[in-house]
UniProtKB/TrEMBL annotation:
Signal peptide residues on this chain, from the entry's feature table: 1-22
Single Gene Ontology MF annotation: serine-type endopeptidase inhibitor activity
Claim: Glycoprotein is one of the keywords in the record: no
Entry keyword set: Protease inhibitor, Serine protease inhibitor, Signal
Gene expressing this chain: LOC105228876
Domain Serpin: 27-389
Higher taxonomy: Eukaryota, Metazoa, Ecdysozoa, Arthropoda, Hexapoda
Family statement: Belongs to the serpin family.
Family matches, as Gene3D superfamilies: Alpha-1-antitrypsin, domain 1, Antithrombin, subunit I, domain 2
Record protein name field: Serine protease inhibitor 42Dd
Entries under Pfam families matching the protein: Serpin (PF00079)
Coiled-coil spans in chain: none
InterPro entries tied to this protein: Serpin_CS (IPR023795), Serpin_dom (IPR023796), Serpin_fam (IPR000215), Serpin_sf (IPR036186), Serpin_sf_1 (IPR042178), Serpin_sf_2 (IPR042185)
Length: 389
């Protein structure tokens, strides 16, 4: 694509937000990203991706705005004020309480030739706290270093080198960035002394040795016959966020389970679970994942913003036609005895064109591929699966 570019970068470090992520986005990510990569460990953040798309939506018009509004499950494509307020409420949870840390930040990088329009400034800057900063994209190395430094600071160095210098040039107009970070301890922590080596069955024919954490305590537990899976939910300390783990009953059951989840709201699944005494055995894991968002967004009907028909006429004060040239997402997660820490990043480049008590102890042994979701009762912040070590 020729012309002046705009990048959208979304950085998420295990997130906890107050926006209800649309089931459309969560389901789409499970179906088109998570389940589409059965041999890879995957983590994506619906909230982070939606927040960055919202920044783009606030500057969009016509078909571009309509497609973005639909992907964001907004009822009225033209009501940008309400959308900005809805996403702006995310900042109400950007605080640290006790041992739990939550950080959310938006940033707009503009080439020195451009300025955001007053209308966009009111919505994106004032409502969504997306501070605008002028840079010189022609100096790609220095500008990429500055953006990456900001990302690293916001994600406590969990997301490094998000944007390569060769992604920027004199034609870049804007880079929109969202950073989201969360770290918390388990309400019921695992003992380091209980962690031991155990086999993890990647498939019926393959296995490897992992560090398996172990504890017995009361947790939300569910046996879902229609999913052919069991589930356990582990709460974090000083926050309403928890981790839901869905375990297929068969070693090779992950693909079947993910196919069935297209009709399941993971955020609401807890209501069908009960408090039981559970012996949990869960492997420690740590990985990062990179994703090109273009194919995912295309499946959601978001295509115009990548074409010469893109309309971001409300974004810049200058009369310059721009389109999105890149949309990337990067995520990181670490789960260990004390708790969870995760990070993710996404960028979009836009270019001007030319309770009951347990009666028994249930066994939950995650020794084969499983799904995880970081959630509360309303929202899914991260979703992914672990398939190998």
């Amino acid at each position: 694509m020729n012309g002046i570019h705009l990048l959208l970068l979304i950085i998420t470090a295990m997130a906890s937000c107050d926006y209800v992520a649309g089931q459309t986005m969560t389901t789409q990510l499970i179906q088109s990203v998570v389940s589409a990569q059965p041999n890879e460990n995957v983590i994506v953040s619906p909230i982070s991706i939606e927040t960055c798309l919202a920044l783009a939506y606030l500057g969009a018009e016509s078909q571009t705005a309509a497609e973005l509004a639909n992907s964001l499950a907004l009822k009225n494509a033209g009501d940008k004020q309400s959308a900005a307020q809805k996403f702006g409420k995310l900042f109400e949870k950007t605080k640290s309480v006790g041992s739990a840390t939550f950080r959310l930040a938006n940033r707009i990088y503009l080439d020195e030739r451009f300025h955001v329009s007053p209308k966009y400034n009111e919505l994106a800057v004032n409502q969504m706290h997306a501070n605008a900063e002028n840079v010189r994209f022609a100096d790609a190395t220095a500008t990429a270093a500055a953006i990456n430094s900001w990302v690293e600071a916001e994600t406590v160095n969990k997301i490094r080198g998000l944007i390569p210098a060769n992604s920027l040039d004199a034609n870049t107009a804007l880079v929109l960035v969202n950073a989201l970070y969360f770290k918390a301890k388990w309400l019921n922590q695992f003992s380091n002394h209980s962690t031991a080596k155990r086999e993890f069955h990647t498939s019926a024919a393959r296995k490897s040795e992992v560090d398996m954490m172990k504890q017995t305590d009361t947790f939300l537990y569910g046996d879902f016959k229609e999913l052919d899976a069991t589930a356990v939910e582990m709460k974090y300390l000083d926050t309403d966020v928890s981790m839901l783990v869905l375990l297929p009953k068969s070693v090779d059951g992950l693909a079947s389970l993910e196919a069935k989840l297209k009709s399941v709201d993971l955020a609401k699944l807890s209501a069908a679970m009960r408090t039981e005494e559970v012996n949990i055995q869960l492997p420690k894991f740590k990985f990062e994942f990179d994703l090109d968002l273009k194919p995912v967004l295309a499946q959601l009907g978001v295509t115009t913003m990548f074409s010469d028909k893109a309309d971001f006429s409300s974004m810049l004060a200058e009369k310059e036609n721009v389109a999105v040239s890149q949309a990337q997402h990067k995520a990181f997660i670490e789960v260990n005895e004390s708790g969870t820490e995760a990070a993710a990043a996404t960028y979009l480049k836009i270019v001007p064109l030319s309770a009951t008590f347990a009666q028994q102890t249930y066994q939950f042994v995650a020794d084969h591929p499983f799904i995880f979701a970081i959630k509360d009762n309303e929202n899914v912040y991260f979703v992914g699966h672990v398939t190998h070590f």
